[in-house]
Design goal:
heterodimer; A: mainly alpha; about 0% strand; B: Rna Polymerase Sigma Factor, Chain: A; Arc Repressor Mutant, subunit A; 2 domains
Chain lengths: ~80, ~150
């Protein structure tokens, strides 16, 4: 690991990325990205994926019959 | 998680039956919602294992396994995912993720849980949750770029 974040290798930067992104820091401001197109593109892609994920799988309320089945199954078990 | 409404309804029923059977074992060590979520997740994982669809178990997903993981981004220039991602393509890629990665991705990026909540639900460290989410996103990136590649090459 180098002392100067700007002199990091891609491998060193990418090893830190899960913590950097997961901690909510502004990863895009990291000095390594100032002159590394590849890691900048990687980070942009990961942010695009996380953004797109919010549109996925809208939550579905189970229909009434599911609750009716659960109720009768619990009653059966209680007997 | 299971990609099928009828199966999701069956698992909803199973989760509530498990809740009915196990409610007496809830000791209040964690929030009830966390405990219930964990119970529901276990029901889903048991189903995935029964179907043999879990290419990587939750336990395996919690362990570092670089050979199972996504590729890193070194080497020659390659494609990037510019602009918006096609929703269906992303849903397909998520469905193809190993179950452990899919679970963490859905909990965090789709459902909006925080890493500390996921760590409680899955009984793993916060660092592990961050690292597995990162690997899940990298695998999705690989999959989406692989889908894009044939169209972009003449």
């Amino acid at each position: 690991m180098t002392g100067d974040p700007g002199k990091m290798t891609c491998a060193e930067f990418q090893a830190q990325l899960p913590e950097l992104v997961g901690s909510g820091e502004d990863a895009a401001a990291h000095p390594h990205l100032m002159d590394c197109d590849r890691c900048r593109a990687l980070l942009a892609d990961l942010e695009t994926i996380a953004e797109a994920a919010r549109q996925l799988f809208p939550s579905v309320e189970p229909p009434d019959e599911v609750w009716a089945h659960i109720e009768s199954a619990i009653k059966r078990e209680g007997k | 998680m299971v990609g099928n409404v009828a199966e999701a309804e069956d698992l909803t029923q199973e989760a509530f039956l498990q809740l009915h059977r196990k409610i007496a074992t809830f000791r209040g060590d964690s929030a009830f919602s966390t405990w219930l979520h964990r119970l529901a997740i276990n029901v889903v994982l048991m189903q995935l294992r029964k179907k043999g669809l879990s290419l990587i178990s939750l336990d395996e997903a919690m362990e570092p396994a670089p050979e199972e993981g996504p590729s890193r981004s070194f080497g020659a220039p390659d494609l990037t995912l510019t602009g918006a991602i096609d929703r269906l393509a992303l849903e397909r890629a998520v469905a193809d993720l190993p179950a452990g990665y899919r679970l963490i991705f859905i909990l965090h990026d789709v459902e909006g849980f925080e890493h500390n909540e996921i760590a409680s639900m899955l009984d793993c460290s916060i660092g592990n949750s961050k690292s597995q989410l990162h690997k899940a996103r990298l695998k999705l990136r690989d999959a989406l770029r692989a889908q894009k590649r044939p169209e972009e090459r003449p």
